[in-house]
Each structure stands twice: as structure tokens, then as C-alpha cells.
Amino acid sequence: MTKVYYNGDAKDQLLQGKTVAIVGYGSQGHAHAQNLRDSGVNVVVGLRKGKSWDQAEQDGFTVLSVKDAVQQAEVVMVLLPDEYQPKVYNEEILPGLKPGKSLVFAHGFNIHFNQIVAPEFVDVFLVAPKGPGHLVRRTYEEGAGVPALFAVFQDVTGEAKDVALAYAKAIGSARAGVLETTFKEETETDLFGEQAVLCGGLTSLVKAGFETLVEAGYQPEVAYFECLHELKLIVDLMYEGGMEGMRYSISDTAQWGDFVSGPRVVDERSKAQMKKVLEDIQTGKFAKGWILENQANRPEFTAINNRENEHLIEKVGAQLREMMPFVKKQKKEAVIASAK
Ligand code: NDP
Ligand code: MG
Ligand code: MG
């Protein structure tokens, strides 16, 4: 097992007396800002005028322009959407970076793919909680924390690792455990996970299953329940007890079907495709496509998104969820939690 760092490994004094600028107040930003403040760290929030600005002020923070927040801080945590970070960095963050300051991220994409080039006189590291911001905040309030990864990209002061651990402690993550990684590993595994398994793999699997049933003449409503709705129950069981825990709870018939049919659906060909997906991530091909797509104002992203939203599974799902107010309520919270 790789080394896991806990509260006892962190030197809190490294953040005491310093000011941390939290740039962005969305999913991660609001949670980091509030947890740091509750841990006794001086926080300012850097934003443009708008919804997040009002919210951060309402939550009692000193809110400044990104430029002013960076000027005042020794530690600058960049929690803007990854696509917008390079522009804001060049225009508003870079001018305020001075020797000895720390430039911090929660995801390695822009540093790893060279979209943000940090001056050689600042420490650069990442602290990436392995959960959405609302969970980072809620677990902290409950006295626990969401595990996190940290990585040091550039260490000028000789203290980058210790400041990263102090930061991880202050947001509650070192209560649960913090693992060391590199910018390369964090970025590539994060992209691969969401593309091949968590988001891309899953939605394609669900759609293919749904379409197979509907094309065979079964009712879309029934297909929806079997291929999408029940997923949550299975995922919850896997989250709690791994595959063994999930298989313990399902029927033996389901478990036998899992054993004999699962490997027929996701087989060596799928794994060969996964290796290609990984290769495109490793070579920078995926990153390049996504960066250019954003520069072109997202024509393909928009077209695919519109087409996906028109899929029969979405129409049927919307109607069925109307019948299940308990699902709708949970869904709203989850959407807010992940969209914030
Ligand atoms: P969100 O989209 O939730 O939040 C974005 C914030 O940035 C908002 O407060 C928004 O304010 C602000 N913002 C956007 N554009 C600008 C701008 N031009 N100038 C100033 N402020 C701006 O981001 P996330 O919290 O999801 O992501 C932040 C980072 O954390 C990313 O690097 C991401 O990869 C990483 N991360 C995210 C996780 C998650 O679960 N969401 C998990 C782990 C890491 P406004 O209201 O004005 O638009
Ligand atoms: Mg990601
Ligand atoms: Mg069943």
C-alpha cells in the first residue's frame, strides 16, 4: 500500500498567519473557503461580479477581484472551471505572483498540458479531494473528511509538500487520509476514469442496454427501470462493500448472470478500446481536441449535447421521475451539489 498521510503528519503552523486566496466559489471553492476558515486560516475569495460573488459575501467572506485577492495572499488556490483557468491566470493571477507564494490547483490538467506555465519562483502543487465540494463541506462539518490526493510540481521554498499537507488538513481531508501522486498521474487517471468508466463508459452502457430492449419490442418505461433507475442501488452497494458486497446483496440468479454475461458485453475489444482512450490522454490528443473545441466556442460539444438530450431514455426518464417525487428531490440536491 502506498503511504497515506493523516492529520498528525501535517504542520498546521505553515498556514497560520498566511492568507489563502480561493479563486472561484463553486463546488470546490465554497467548501475549501469555509473549511479553511473554520480551521483558523485567513481566507479571501477572488471572483468576478455575479452569482458566486453574492453568495460568498452572504457567507461572510471578504470578496475581491481575482487580481486583488492574489495580491493579498501567500497561497493562491485556483478553483475555476478548468477551461477558463488559463485566461484568468494570464490576465489576473500571474501579475500578482511573487517569489515564495504558492500556486495551487485541485486538478492537474492545465499545468500538465502546459496551458498554465507558472513562473519559476513560486511553489506549485495540487490538493484534489476525491469528491464533490458539497461532500467536502458536509463531511468536514461532521468531523470527518473526504480523502484527497496531493502532488508537488515545483518546490522553490523547500516547503511545498508540507504546505500541501497543511492545506489538506485544513480542508478536513487529512482526517480521512491523503495520498501522494504526481500531476501526470492525477490528470491522466482522472480523465481516463471519467471517460472510460464513470461518465462515458456508464452512459454508453446504459444507452446500449436500453436500446437493445426497446428495439426488441419491450416497453421503454420498463427498459428505463431495468437499465438506468436501478443503477443507483447497485452503485451504492459497490460503494459500501466493493463488488463482493454488491454480489452478496443481489440474487444468485443475478450474480450468475453477472459472471457469465458481463464479460461478454465488456470484453477484450472494449479493453483494447480503453487502451486507445488512455493513449489519447497520454499523448495529449484528447487535451488538444478539448482545448481547440473551447477556442471554437464548443460547436461539437453543443451539437452532441443537444442530440443526447433528445434520446428516448431522457424523455421516458423525465416522465417516470415525475411519478417518483422522492427521486426528484434527491436528484435536485445531487445536481445542485455537482453543478455548484
Ligand atoms: P465550478 O464550476 O463549480 O465553479 C466555478 C467558479 O468559478 C464559480 O464560482 C464561478 O463564478 C467562477 N468563475 C468562472 N469563471 C470565472 C472568471 N472568469 N473569473 C472569476 N471567477 C470565475 O468549478 P468546480 O469547483 O467544479 O471546479 C474547480 C476546480 O476543482 C477544477 O479544477 C476541477 O477540476 C476541480 N475539481 C472539481 C471537483 C468537483 O467535484 N466539482 C472534484 C475535484 C476537483 P460565477 O458564479 O461568477 O460563474
Ligand atoms: Mg475530472
Ligand atoms: Mg431485476
TrEMBL record:
Residues at which Mg(2+) 1 binds: 190, 194
Record bears the keyword Cell inner membrane: no
EC number in record: 1.1.1.86
Molecular-function GO term, any one: isomerase activity
KARI N-terminal Rossmann domain ranges (all copies): 2-181
GO biological process: isoleucine biosynthetic process; L-valine biosynthetic process
Pathway entry: Amino-acid biosynthesis; L-valine biosynthesis; L-valine from pyruvate: step 2/4; Amino-acid biosynthesis; L-isoleucine biosynthesis; L-isoleucine from 2-oxobutanoate: step 2/4
Name of this protein: Ketol-acid reductoisomerase (NADP(+))
Native organism: Priestia megaterium (strain ATCC 12872 / QMB1551)
Gene behind this protein: ilvC
